[in-house]
C-alpha cells in the first residue's frame, strides 16, 4: 500500500517536473519571439525621447548606458530636440510670507558647488527656479527643471546655460539643467554688469564650447577674453576697434560661426561680429539702417535682421560671413505692430508639414511665418501667456524675452503682476526705450516686475506718466525711492490689485 | 491579370502595361504582387530594380528579413500613402493622413510594432520608419526602466549594487514616471 502511494507520488512528481520544464521551454520560445531590434533601430527610437525619459532609460543595460551617454547619440539627440525657452522664476518674497520651502527633489546649484557644506549663510539670498517654456502645436507649457540657483542666466547654447556664480565674484557656471551636471569656470576679469557682455557658443571646428567675455576697461577700451570649456583658462583676445561697439545693451547673437552685436542702442548701420574660431572682430554692414525696434536674431543657424519698414516687418537673412549678401526673405505685411521688438525665432513643428517659425516680441504677440514663404503673413496671435494657467504672470516669461528687448535683469528681481495701470518714469529706463516717444497716458491690463528698487514694465506699456495719480479712481498708495538716480515709480492702485498692493506700491520723492 | 492589359501597338512591353506589378517574396515564402509605385517606396526594392539591369518583371525579389505579417502592415501603409499622394499632388490632406496613421497604429501591438520597425528599417522606407519609431518612442516615454526593458527584451546587466548606486546618483531621473 505504502509502496503504491510512493509510486504514485513519484509519478506525480515527474509529471509536475515535466510540466514545469515544458513551461520553461515555452517561455524561452516566447522570449525568442520578441523581435530583437538592432542597435540602430533602438537608437532611432531613443533619440526621439525627451531627455527626462532618457535619463532613466540609460539604466536599462550597460549597452544602452554607453550608447546614450556617447557623443554621437548626444549630437543626434540635439538635432531632434525642440527648442524651449529657458527662464528663471524668482522665489517670490512677500512681506509676511517666509521663503517658501524648496520643492522636494530640487537641485541647488550652489549647494552642489559647495558639496554639502552648509548653505545657511546664504539663506537670505533671493534665488531662482530654472524653468522652461515649451511650445507645441501652438500652445505653450511651462515645465520645471527643479533646479534652483542664486545667479542669473547669462547666456545659453544648445541647452547648456551659463550662470553667474554668486559664490565667487566674477565666476561663472556652465550647467546642463536636465542632467544637472555643472562646471564652475575660473574667474575672469571682473567688471560691473553694465560694462560687460557674455557670449556662449559652440565651435563647429573644434566641437568645443566657448565663453566670450567682452568688457570695457577703465580707459574705456573694449577688451575681450575667451575660455574653452576643455582647457578652462581665460585667454586675452584683441577686442573690437575703438569706438565700434558703443553699448552692451544688446546681447550677442550666435549664428553663421560668429557672435554678433548690435553696436548702438538706437540707430545701427552695421553689426560687430567675432568669428568663433579665429576670434577676430570685424564689422558687417546691415542691409538698411536699423532703428530702435530693429534687432538681429538667429534663425535656422543663419543671421537674421528684423526691421520695420513702414507698416511691414521685413526679415533679411545673411547665410555666411564671406561672400554672402543680405537677402530679404520675408515681409510680414498683415497686422504688424510698429514697435514690435523681435527677440527670438523658434522653429516649431506645427502638426505636419513645413516647419514654421515664431518671432516673438516682448509683449508676447507671436508672429507665425510659414517656412519658405516669401510673403509671410501673420497667421495667428498666440496668447502664449495665461492660456493654460490662469495665474500665469509676467515672471513666467522667459528671461530671454526681456534680455533681448534690451532690458536688464537683476538677480534679485522680484516679480509682480499689476492688473490696472502703471505709471512710470525713470531716466535710464526712458533713455533705453522711449526717448523718441513722448510720454502718453494709457490704461490697460499690464504687467511689470520689480528689480530691487525698480519697477520694470514691458515696452509697449511704458507709456503713462504722472497724470493719473489721485484721479480717475486710481490712488497712489505708496512710495519707494532711489535717490541716486532720481528714479520714480508711481503706481495707481485699485481694488483688483489684490495681493500686490502691500508689496511695492511706490512713488519716489521729488518726482510727483 | 494579363487580360486586363490594353493591347498596344508598341513593342515595348513595359510601357504598354497600365499598372506594372512587382513580386516580393517574404521570409515565409509568400509572394506579394505589389503595384509599382507602392513597391518603389521601398528603397531596397527601388535600388534593386535600378541597379540590376538583368531583372525583368517576372523577377521575384526575395525579402528574407520580412515576415508576411509585417509585409501586410507595411503595404497597408504604403498603399494608403500612395493613395494620398495620387489624390493630392501638392499637399497631403493632413487631417486624413493623421486619422489614418492614428487608426493604423492603434491596432498594432508592441510586438507587431517592433516587427514592423525591423522590416521598415531593412526595406529602408524612411517615412514609415520615422513614423513607427516616433510611435514606439511615444509608447515608452515616461515609462519605468522595467517597462522599457520588457518592451525591448533587454536584460539588465547591471549588478544590483551598480544599479542602486546609479539610482541614488540620479534619483531625480525616476520622478514622475507613468504607471506601466
Automatic annotation (TrEMBL), chain A:
Q: Which SUPFAM superfamilies match?
A: F-box domain
Q: Name one Pfam family in it.
A: FBA_3
F-box domain boundaries: 37-73
InterPro entries xref list: F-box-assoc_dom_typ3, F-box-assoc_interact_dom, F-box-like_dom_sf, F-box_dom, SCF_F-box_component
Instruction: Give the superkingdom in one word.
Output: Eukaryota
* Protein name per the record: F-box domain-containing protein
Chain ranges of the F-box associated beta-propeller type domain: 138-334
Which organism is this protein's natural source?
Xanthoceras sorbifolium
UniProtKB/TrEMBL annotation, chain B:
* Annotated SKP1 component POZ domain residues: 20-82
Please state what the protein is called: SKP1-like protein
What SMART domains is this protein classified in? Skp1
Keyword Nucleus attributed: no
Write down the PANTHER family for this protein, in alphabetical order: SKP1
Which intervals hold domain SKP1 component dimerisation?
127-173
Q: What are the alphabetically sorted keywords of the record? A: Ubl conjugation pathway
User: Which residues lie in coiled coils?
Assistant: none
Tell me which InterPro entries the record gives.
Answer: SKP1, SKP1-like, SKP1-like_dim_sf, SKP1/BTB/POZ_sf, Skp1_comp_dimer, Skp1_comp_POZ
UniProt source species: Xanthoceras sorbifolium
UniProt lists compositionally biased (Low complexity) regions at 1-15
Q: Give the span(s) annotated as Disordered.
A: 1-26
Any one Pfam family here would be Skp1_POZ
Quaternary arrangement and interactors, per the entry? Part of a SCF (SKP1-cullin-F-box) protein ligase complex.
Amino acid at each position: 500500500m505504502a509502496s503504491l502511494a510512493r509510486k504514485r507520488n513519484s509519478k506525480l512528481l515527474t509529471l509536475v517536473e515535466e510540466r514545469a520544464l515544458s513551461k520553461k521551454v515555452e517561455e524561452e520560445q516566447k522570449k525568442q519571439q520578441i523581435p530583437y531590434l538592432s542597435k540602430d533601430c533602438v537608437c532611432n527610437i531613443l533619440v526621439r525621447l525627451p531627455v527626462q525619459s532618457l535619463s532613466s532609460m540609460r539604466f536599462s543595460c550597460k549597452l544602452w548606458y554607453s550608447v546614450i551617454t556617447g557623443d554621437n547619440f548626444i549630437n543626434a539627440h540635439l538635432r531632434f530636440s525642440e527648442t524651449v525657452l529657458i527662464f528663471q522664476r524668482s522665489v517670490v518674497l512677500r512681506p509676511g510670507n517666509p521663503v517658501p520651502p524648496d520643492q522636494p527633489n530640487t537641485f541647488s546649484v550652489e549647494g552642489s558647488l559647495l558639496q554639502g557644506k552648509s548653505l545657511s549663510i546664504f539663506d537670505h539670498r533671493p534665488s531662482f527656479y530654472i524653468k522652461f517654456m515649451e511650445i507645441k502645436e501652438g500652445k505653450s507649457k511651462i515645465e520645471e527643471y527643479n533646479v534652483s540657483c542664486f545667479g542669473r542666466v547669462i547666456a545659453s547654447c544648445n541647452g547648456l546655460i551659463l550662470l553667474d556664480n554668486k559664490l565667487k565674484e566674477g565666476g561663472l557656471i556652465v550647467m546642463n539643467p536636465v542632467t544637472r551636471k555643472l562646471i564652475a569656470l575660473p574667474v575672469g576679469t571682473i567688471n560691473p554688469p553694465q560694462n560687460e557682455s557674455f557670449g556662449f557658443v559652440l565651435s563647429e571646428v573644434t566641437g568645443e564650447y566657448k565663453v566670450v567675455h567682452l568688457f570695457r576697461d577703465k580707459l574705456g577700451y573694449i577688451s575681450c577674453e575667451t575660455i574653452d570649456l576643455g582647457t578652462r583658462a581665460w585667454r586675452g583676445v584683441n577686442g573690437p576697434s575703438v569706438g565700434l561697439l558703443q553699448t552692451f545693451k544688446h546681447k550677442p547673437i550666435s549664428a553663421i560661426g560668429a557672435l554678433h552685436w548690435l553696436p548702438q542702442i538706437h540707430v545701427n548701420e552695421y553689426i560687430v561680429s567675432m568669428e568663433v574660431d579665429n576670434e577676430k572682430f570685424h564689422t558687417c554692414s546691415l542691409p538698411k539702417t536699423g532703428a530702435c525696434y530693429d534687432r538681429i536674431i538667429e534663425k535656422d543657424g543663419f543671421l537674421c535682421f528684423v526691421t520695420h519698414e513702414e507698416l511691414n516687418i521685413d526679415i533679411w537673412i545673411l547665410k555666411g560671413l564671406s561672400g554672402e549678401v543680405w537677402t530679404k526673405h520675408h515681409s510680414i505685411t498683415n497686422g504688424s505692430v510698429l514697435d514690435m521688438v523681435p527677440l527670438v525665432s523658434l522653429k516649431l513643428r506645427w502638426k505636419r508639414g513645413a516647419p514654421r517659425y515664431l518671432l516673438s516680441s516682448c509683449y508676447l504677440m507671436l508672429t507665425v511665418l510659414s517656412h519658405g514663404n516669401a510673403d509671410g503673413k501673420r497667421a495667428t496671435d498666440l496668447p502664449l501667456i495665461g492660456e493654460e494657467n490662469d495665474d500665469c504672470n509676467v515672471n513666467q516669461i522667459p528671461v530671454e524675452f526681456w534680455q533681448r528687448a534690451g532690458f536688464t535683469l537683476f538677480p534679485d528681481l522680484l516679480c509682480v503682476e499689476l492688473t490696472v495701470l502703471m505709471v512710470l518714469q525713470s531716466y535710464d529706463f526712458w533713455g533705453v526705450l522711449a526717448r523718441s516717444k513722448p510720454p502718453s497716458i494709457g490704461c490697460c491690463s499690464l504687467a511689470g516686475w520689480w528689480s530691487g528698487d525698480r519697477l520694470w514694465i514691458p515696452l509697449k506699456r511704458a507709456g503713462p506718466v504722472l497724470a493719473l495719480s489721485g484721479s480717475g479712481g486710481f490712488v497712489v498708495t505708496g512710495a519707494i525711492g532711489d535717490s541716486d538716480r532720481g528714479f520714480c515709480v508711481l503706481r495707481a492702485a485699485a481694488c483688483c490689485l489684490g495681493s500686490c498692493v502691500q508689496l511695492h506700491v511706490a512713488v519716489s520723492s521729488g518726482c510727483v | 491579370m494579363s487580360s486586363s492589359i490594353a493591347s498596344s501597338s508598341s513593342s515595348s512591353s513595359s510601357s504598354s502595361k497600365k499598372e506594372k506589378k512587382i513580386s516580393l517574396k517574404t521570409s515565409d515564402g509568400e509572394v506579394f504582387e505589389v503595384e509599382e509605385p507602392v513597391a518603389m517606396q521601398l528603397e531596397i526594392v527601388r535600388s534593386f530594380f535600378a541597379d540590376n539591369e538583368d531583372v525583368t518583371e517576372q523577377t521575384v525579389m526575395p525579402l528574407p528579413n520580412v515576415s508576411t505579417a509585417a509585409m501586410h502592415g507595411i503595404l497597408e501603409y504604403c498603399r494608403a500613402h500612395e493613395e494620398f499622394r495620387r489624390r493630392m499632388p501638392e499637399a497631403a490632406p493632413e487631417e486624413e493622413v493623421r486619422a489614418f496613421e492614428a487608426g493604423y497604429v492603434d491596432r498594432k501591438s508592441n510586438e507587431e510594432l517592433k516587427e514592423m520597425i525591423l522590416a521598415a528599417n531593412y526595406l529602408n522606407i524612411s517615412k514609415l520608419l520615422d513614423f513607427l519609431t516616433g510611435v514606439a518612442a511615444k509608447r515608452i516615454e515616461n515609462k519605468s526602466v522595467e517597462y522599457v526593458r520588457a518592451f525591448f527584451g533587454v536584460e539588465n546587466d547591471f549588478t544590483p549594487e551598480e544599479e542602486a548606486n546609479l539610482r541614488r546618483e540620479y534619483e531625480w531621473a525616476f520622478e514622475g514616471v507613468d504607471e506601466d
